[in-house]
From TrEMBL:
The lineage of its organism: Bacteria, Bacillati, Bacillota, Bacilli, Bacillales. The keyword Lipid biosynthesis does not apply. Residues 9-94 form the FAD dependent oxidoreductase domain. Signal peptide: none annotated. It comes from Ureibacillus aquaedulcis. Residues 221-329 form the Glucose-methanol-choline oxidoreductase N-terminal domain. Belongs to the GMC oxidoreductase family. It comes from the Bacteria. This is GMC family oxidoreductase. Residues 438-552 form the Glucose-methanol-choline oxidoreductase C-terminal domain. The keyword Repeat does not apply.
Amino acid sequence: MVTTLPKTDVVVVGVGWTGGIVAAELSKKGYKVVGLERGKGRTTADYLMVHDELRYTKRHEMMQDLSKETITFRNHEKMRALPMRQHGAFVVGTGVGGSGAHWSGQNYRFLPYDFQIKTMTEERYGKNKLDSNYILQDWGITYDELEPYFDTFEKMAGISGEENPLGGFRSNPYPTGPMKTSPLLQTFKDATTNLGCHPYMVPSANLSEDYTNPDGISRAACQYCGFCSRYGCEYGAKADPAVTVVPTAEATGNFELRTHSQVVEILHTGNKATGVRYVDVQSGEEFIQPAEVVVVSSFTLNNTRLLLLSNMGTPYDSKTGRGVIGKNYAYQNNCGETVGLFDDRQFNLYMGAGSMGVAIDDFNGDNFDHTDLNFIHGGSIFLLQTGKGPIGFNPTKDGTKNWGKQFKEESIKYYSSQVAIDAQGANLGHRYHYLDLDPTYKDAWGMPLLRMTYDYEDQDREMAKFIGDQTEKIVKEMGATHTYTNREQGPFDIVPYQSTHNTGGVIMGSDPETSAINNYMQMWDFDNVFVPGASAFPHNGGYNPTGTIGALSYRAAEGIDKYLKNGGSLV
């Protein structure tokens, strides 16, 4: 039996950054908002003294239970897709805060080039720079139009940083100053400056100082304990929906959070959603929550899957290139890493934070000439001092066996003197990279799993070679005695861990024929359904996506407010 509940103004499906921001902004304006989160509730009390690598890093305490719900994966359409049985290439969070609870805290703004990538690429390099299978698409909004929303997100989260000399225009400085510059980070700064680059401190959601945001939420400064990525922050120093926007929403009295609530279907009649159907995963009871507006704000992959399961929007068809739901899945091109070992220097690598680092953007976006290169875009190159755990970090020279006396000796020797210069490369939309429903495998509730079809392409491989040349130069300039550079990319494998930066599937744009949502994150086909989050990205840029997700979420909240005030219109 299904119980139908009283109607609300807005129902939010997933209470991470996107759902939390929408809930906070709309509840402050007096709307009644219900937040449905399939996982458990969280506060800082849940993280007290839990610096446990086995529990969180290795056993994925904060992540989705893959025995109940997972994805299937294949590299191409002729390959059989198989379920992802353990967390590998990426980890999907669950519980209040979602991925915003276990993230590292790196908080960039995508470059102006990203939002107009098709227009700017064609203007500079012509229409035939890439082959026709790559799908370049402008986002339907410019950086300058989105800049105020970036600013709002950074003030709410208390982002600590300094201006990127090669980034877009900023209306205001970061609300707090950059994190500490350690001797290791200073070495990177000096080396990249010597090479003619423009280093800057990574923008950080790990607070550099005590901070009170515009909503009155106060948080303490980072302790540099090194337990950020895959962990919740016991001090509240890391911006997390559970310590920022969720308490703000709850303080209004207009927001009701329901945990352990798995949404299985968006209900709709004609071109209007009427609400959602969800299961209480503890009792097994089913409920219908009617609402004026439905906000689909779960993880990227789950947004796409829920729309496909609910028969909303036209599924993407790779054969014809038509359809929009599932289109332009993109990952992160984690490319060109160089590892350096120092025989004559030691660094305190145990201390750190998820976004304590230095980056350069000289080889990101279109900040360099691609005329004679077989790829476009690029990536941020950076050195992070995140805090190395003794279980997960055992550095040795190349060729050393991973057991025995030599392994132990080198692990101890290089624990404080191994440095990795990494890069996050952009990843473009491609005709044969998409998400759809698996025809064979189902989840614990009997519904089809999401199927991912994805691989690295020539664009990614050429970028990896180029970026590898740059990171190698930096490590050698830093004075490393041994260097190892990975210039190879692909084929993509679902293991080991690489990045949780999944994007696309419900992409934004200015044309309903090529996009699923407009620049307010409103579906073209269902005007009372909004889908904020990284699923809106037509491609993935050369950064962590969270800052851009935050900006788009504030934009969505503004759009929903206009929609409700104007009786169903955004005009």
